[in-house]
User: Which sequence fits this backbone?
């Protein structure tokens, strides 16, 4: 039998504890959560995608390659893996989305003052975290 990394139908994962179908299923769950994170300001996108990539890397080379080659998610994952950075455009879009969607949620859908403050603090923490991540473009300029 040929040594093919895609031929792992019932073989357990590299660590031998979690079967491939569970890791693959978790990978798709985290991809879905990452996609939801594109729309909801309180859910991060990149951490879910990184976990999905790790699940696929240990269970399915085909799905790992699929995720890394996706037009929307692939560059984010590759940038993060290689340089621990995200593009300036992605940072700006994330912060604008947090402000617009999170701010309108606080203004129009939350009545309790304490809850408004709590949600605003959570949103602010996300903004600070995103703002402190290195810009991919700045790293490229420093290297050249």
Assistant:
């Amino acid at each position: 039998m040929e040594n093919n990394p895609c031929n792992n139908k019932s073989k357990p994962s590299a660590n031998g504890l979690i079967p491939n179908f569970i890791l693959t299923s978790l990978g798709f769950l985290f991809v879905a959560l990452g996609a939801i994170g594109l729309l909801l300001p309180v859910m991060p996108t990149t951490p879910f995608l990184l976990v999905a990539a790790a699940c696929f890397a240990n269970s399915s080379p085909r799905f790992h390659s699929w995720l890394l080659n996706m037009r929307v998610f692939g560059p984010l994952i590759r940038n993060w893996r290689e340089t621990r950075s995200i593009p300036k455009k992605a940072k700006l879009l994330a912060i604008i989305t947090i402000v617009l969607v999170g701010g309108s949620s606080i203004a129009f859908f939350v009545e309790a003052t304490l809850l408004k403050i709590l949600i605003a603090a959570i949103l602010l923490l996300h903004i600070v975290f995103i703002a402190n991540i290195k810009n991919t473009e700045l790293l490229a300029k420093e290297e050249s």
Remarks:
- The longest helix spans residues 88-109.
- The chain has two domains: 20-83, 86-143.
